[in-house]
Amino acid sequence: MKKVLLLGDSIRMGYDGIVKDLLEGECEVYYDEDNGRFSSYTLWQANQLFKNYGKFDVVHWNNGYWDMNVEAPMTEAMHPVDEYLHFLKRIIREIRRNGAEAIFATTTPVAERGLALDGTGAGISYDNSWVETYNEAAKKLMAQENIAVNDLYALMLKGNHYYKCGDGLHLTEEGYRLCAEQAAGLIREKLANA
Question: Could you tell me which Pfam families the record lists for this protein (predicted)?
Answer without folding.
Answer: Lipase_GDSL_2
